[in-house]
Fold this protein.
Amino acid sequence: MEDFKVKSKEVFEKHRNRYIEKTKYGGDGAQSKIDNLNFFGSVINDYTEEIIAVGNHYLDKDSSINKDRMEKYLKDEIKRFNSLLKVE
């Protein structure tokens, strides 16, 4: 499970950095917020797909990993990623 947690942090940072690089702060006001929301939707979808794929890979690789524990961890990580959404 520790290998998975290291890999999941790498995936989190990759997608977080992608979002931060494209996020507009201030700028056009309402249009900036709309653009950020639209882009975040794309990033969260990509992140969710990748983190679930990584989780499934580790579940297949290591039968000692508890499926329910993995599912909870993935849900928590997706919630944590969602908290990055900027609509300032």
